[in-house]
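Contributing new records

If you add data, match the layout below exactly. Sequence lines come first and carry their own label; structure lines follow with theirs. Keep one chain per record. Anything else will be rejected by the validation script.
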Amino acid sequence: MMDTVFISHGSPTMAIDESITARKFLKTWQQIFKERPKAILVISGHWETKEPTVNVVNRNETIYDFYDLPEPMYKLKYTPPGAPLLAKRVKELLMENGFKNVHEDKTRGVDHGAWVPLMLMYPEAEIPVCQLSVQTDRDGTYHYNLGKALAPLREEGILIMGSGASTHNVGTMRPGGSPAPSWALQFDTWLKNALLEGRYEDVNHYDSRAPYGKMAHPWPDHFYPLHVAMGAAGENAKAKLVHHSWDHGTLSYASYQFTAPK
């Protein structure tokens, strides 16, 4: 029975910037998360669609979905095998659980919300990877239920990984080394306490129940991957904070692991 995880992937430059603390954490991933998955399903904040969509490819190409970054970023490649059978299974589970319109994308590779953390976690790029999109016009409960539908994958050796950010307001980012402002600290602490106390319903309604919810996430794309990982683990799952650090003042790299009761 696999745990589910939520990774705050932060800045794309984590792939090359050794000063980012979260990079060191992800490079030790296989020492922490010892069970090797058969395949990885990534829900990334960088793939938004109107309805749930999976990428159905035999080999994932590297998507450079960023701009004005250092030249070395555009030379990196992470091309793990695709997981077409997993993609079909995801579609099947979602449709069985009321998500009637689930689509297949037969050309899309992996965006940086997937490949930046994965190249640090599993640098050999041998584990098949499938991506599932988020729907930013829906709410946290919708994505929690999306995750619940995917729960059987945990028994099939699949790592369900949400990749986004615990706080994501890029307009408020400060120079590296800047202290976190009060609003970011308050939201980040509220989220940690809510998860560790199992108050998942509060997290589903973070926009109305959390302090500075809209400030921390003016657009929900990077937060909904957490709801999917949380839902896939089940309502009685125990959350564990596996990493915490800050960068650029307002960018929290808090990452969580969810373990269902045995």
